[in-house]
Design brief:
With about 350 residues, the chain is α/β, with parallel strands linked by helices. The protein has helices at about 20-30, 50-60, 75-80, 90-100, 115-120, 135-145, 165-170, 210-215, 235, 265-275, 290, 310-320, 340-350, and strands at about 10, 35, 45-50, 70-75, 105-110, 125-130, 145-150, 175-180, 190-195, 200-205, 220, 255-260, 280-285, 300-305, 330-335, 355. The strands form 2 sheets. An 11-stranded mixed beta sheet has the order 1-8-2-3-7-4-6-5-9-10-11, with helices on both faces. Helix 8 links the parallel strand 10 and strand 11. The protein is globular and about 60 Å long. About 45% of the residues are buried. The structure holds threonylcarbamoyladenylate (TXA) and magnesium ion. Magnesium ion (MG) binds near residues 150, 151 and 159. The site of magnesium ion has 3 residues, from loops.
């Protein structure tokens, strides 16, 4: 049983950040507590990465399976290399850091004994990143220790892009939430494993495979599971290298049916009508271009297909909104899986409980 704690909210202005305003959060972290904080991708649920009991509380608060490793957030390349085991990886890490840190890229490297097994779920690698958010950076600097942090949602739920999402999922289970406004990227970081060559993309995000190849001078390998149509199909496809991939994630409670492009509006309408004929209350989650056609169903919007960055930024809030309408089924329209669209489609495929082709 988790005894309930009072979850405080601390409002901060990321544009004019005063160290003072972060002191209560620092005190909570120093005491082994867990605190949610904003990053540019999504809100993270942080604990002192060098305190195994504190890290245990992250797993407990989220209901996270113990075999799913955490990302460790650092504020400098030096802090990152202190956790590294294989000095041969430093060159590539430096190259990536120069191009993308601080930013939405997590680099998986071999790790030494400074981190307890609980952080990495027993793996001999660790995912490291310097977040590009003034609050996150200041928090790590003031704590003077790395911060382990997964996304600050209950396990299986969409990642939080606002403090209110965190409160809805984790209120009463964590010491506090630093409210620094909405996350700008909106999807979790890209995860790249550099323990082999060419490096392997384990999770697509704001930093695209094209960006990575440009800097590394070689194509990155895209792990087969990145394209898996649904979470429950992941481990059948091949062995799982990134444990997070085998879990259903990002899912609203309402069943979500993903219609992949290319599809025409007639087929989309036909699928919706078929589902309605089965007695279901159906809604659509559409790009602006399709929503503007005013199909005869309640419609939620993803944003313009021409601006996948904006679709990414609003996706998780949209997935949370899906549950508000009391629908039996929401049919979501896919977008083209290239650039940041690859990350959007990866999350939608993982959130979907069924595909339009399924029986
Ligand atoms: O943007 C982000 O990455 C956010 C913010 C808070 O930084 N964090 C985040 O953490 O999304 P989380 O725990 O929700 O997702 C981490 C993913 C999981 O799929 C996990 O399995 C994978 O990264 N991962 C972590 N460490 C790994 C490792 N050593 N090897 C392979 N995969 C790893
Ligand atoms: Mg997560």
């Amino acid at each position: 049983m988790l005894h309930s704690v009072v979850t405080r909210t601390w409002h901060v202005d990321p544009e004019q950040l005063l160290a003072e305003t972060l002191r209560p959060a620092i005190a909570a972290l120093q005491a082994g507590g867990v605190v949610a904080f904003p990053t540019e991708t999504v809100y993270g649920l942080g604990a002192d990465a060098l305190n195994p009991q504190a890290v245990h509380r992250i797993f407990h608060a989220k209901g996270r399976p113990a075999d799913n490793p955490l990302i460790v957030h650092v504020s400098s390349l030096e802090m990152a290399t202190e956790l590294l085991a294989e000095k041969a990886e430093i060159g590539v890490l430096e190259q990536l850091a120069a191009a993308f840190w601080p930013g939405p890229l997590t680099v998986v490297v071999s790790r030494n004994e400074r981190l307890d097994d609980i952080v990495t779920a027993g793996l001999n690698t660790v995912g490291l990143r310097i977040p590009a958010h003034p609050v996150a950076l200041q928090l790590i600097r003031m704590l003077e220790r790395p911060i382990a942090a997964p996304s600050a949602n209950r396990s299986g739920r969409p990642s939080p892009t606002q403090a209110a999402h965190v409160m809805a999922d984790l209120g009463g289970r964590i010491e506090g939430i630093i409210d620094g406004g909405s996350a700008t990227v909106g999807l979790e970081s890209t995860v790249l494993d550099i323990t082999e060559w060419p490096p392997v993309l384990l999770r697509p995000g704001g930093v695209t495979p094209e960006d990575l190849s440009g800097v590394l001078g070689t194509q990155v390998t895209i792990d087969g599971n990145v394209h898996a149509a649904r979470a429950d199909l992941v481990h059948q496809a091949q062995p799982v290298r990134s444990p997070g991939m085998k879990y259903v994630h990002y899912a609203p409670s309402t069943p979500l049916l993903l219609v992949e492009r290319p599809t025409d509006t007639d087929s989309l309408t036909r699928i919706a009508l078929e589902q309605q004929a089965m007695g279901k209350k159906v809604a659509l989650l559409l790009t602006d271009e399709t929503a503007d056609l005013s199909l005869p169903f309640p419609t939620l919007r993803l944003g313009s297909r021409l601006q996948p960055d904006q679709i990414a930024a609003g996706l998780f809030a949209a997935l949370r909104d899906v549950d508000r309408g009391g629908y039996d089924l929401v049919i979501v329209e896919g977008i083209e899986a290239s650039g940041v669209g690859l990350a959007v489609m990866n999350r939608l495929r993982r959130a979907a409980s069924a595909l339009s082709g399924d029986k």
